[in-house]
Structures are given as structure tokens and as C-alpha cells.
């Protein structure tokens, strides 16, 4: 079994690393074409499995890394970075130090607001906003409808409708994101 495990564990780890590395780089640069995001999220399980099988099939060599200072230092640094990345100290998650991410909260508040309310915020008339949406093929039955209701009735995402109102049609309001959204 050891020979069989060794014969496919390393190729699995290399193949899965290739998928994870390429899709991770694309996501880093906000290039989300095709199935990049779901492939990165779901196929990362292959990477974990490949590395686990690779470590098991090479356990003697793997154990040797714990015998030298450089190996312990590199593995220890990686574990430390992993632990720090899980702490909500930088406010990047849904909640940071008990405070909701303000940008995400603002978008959610706008999506739950009526066209009339959004018009007040944007300092335009509700009719102007309705006309703007109609240019995008989005029907507004009345200005008291919320952005979420309009999106649902038109088969669109809330972000797309809100983006059309904010002047970035079809992009969901994502101007220059700088990594503010979606966790990879």
C-alpha cells in the first residue's frame, strides 16, 4: 500500500496545488472568470487531502523536519500566521471586535431601503432613480419599493440594482474594491 499511496499522493498534491495557486492568484487580482471562485473554494479540499496523503506516505522525512531548527521555525511561523489570520483584530470579517463591517452594513441598509430613501441619500428624485433603473431594463413599480424587492421582481441581485443606481451598471456598485469584499 505504501508504494501505491506514494505513487499518487505527490501528483495529487502537485495537481491540487496548481489549481489552488492559479485560482488564488486570479482571485487576488479580482479576475473572477468562469468557475474560478468555486473551483478555488471547493477544490482546496483536494490540496488538503493531497498534502495529508503526501505527509503520511513520507512520514519519516516529514518527521525529520521537526528535528532541525529551520524546519521548526518555518512550520512554527506558518502556524502562527494561520492563527493570527483567524483573529478578528483587523476587522476584515463579518464582525471585527464586535463592530459590524461598516461598508457591508451601509450596502445592506441601502438594499433594504426604498427608492425614495435612496433618492434622499443620493440627492436626486425617486423618478430620476426609477428612470436610471429602467435604462438598465429594471422595472420599478413604485418608489416605495425597496432595492431588494425591485431586485427580486426583476430577477436581479440586490448589488446589481444598487450598482445601477450608484452609477456602475452591471457591476453591483463595485468600483475599485481593493479587496474589500469576499473572502477567498
What do you see in this structure?
- The protein starts with a helix and ends in a 19-residue tail after the last helix.
- It is mostly helical and 184 residues long.
- A hairpin with a 2-residue loop joins strand 1 and strand 2 (99-100).
- It has a two-stranded antiparallel sheet with strand order 1-2.
- Helices cover 64% and strands 2% of the residues.
- Helix 1 (2-28) runs antiparallel to helix 2 (36-57), helix 6 packs across helix 7 (126-135) and helix 8 (147-154) crosses helix 9 (158-165).
- The chain contains nine helices and two strands.
What is the general shape? elongated
Count the helices. How many?
A: 9
Helix/strand class: mainly alpha
User: SSE order, as H and E?
Assistant: HHHHEEHHHHH
* Residues in helix, %: 55-70%
Distance between the termini: 36 Å
Mean pLDDT: 81
What about the largest sheet?
A: 2 strands, antiparallel
Radius of gyration: 24 Å
What percentage of amino acids are in beta strands?
under 5%
- The total count of strands amounts to 2
Strand order of the biggest β-sheet: 1-2
Could you list the spans in which at least 5 consecutive residues all have pLDDT below 50?
92-98, 169-184
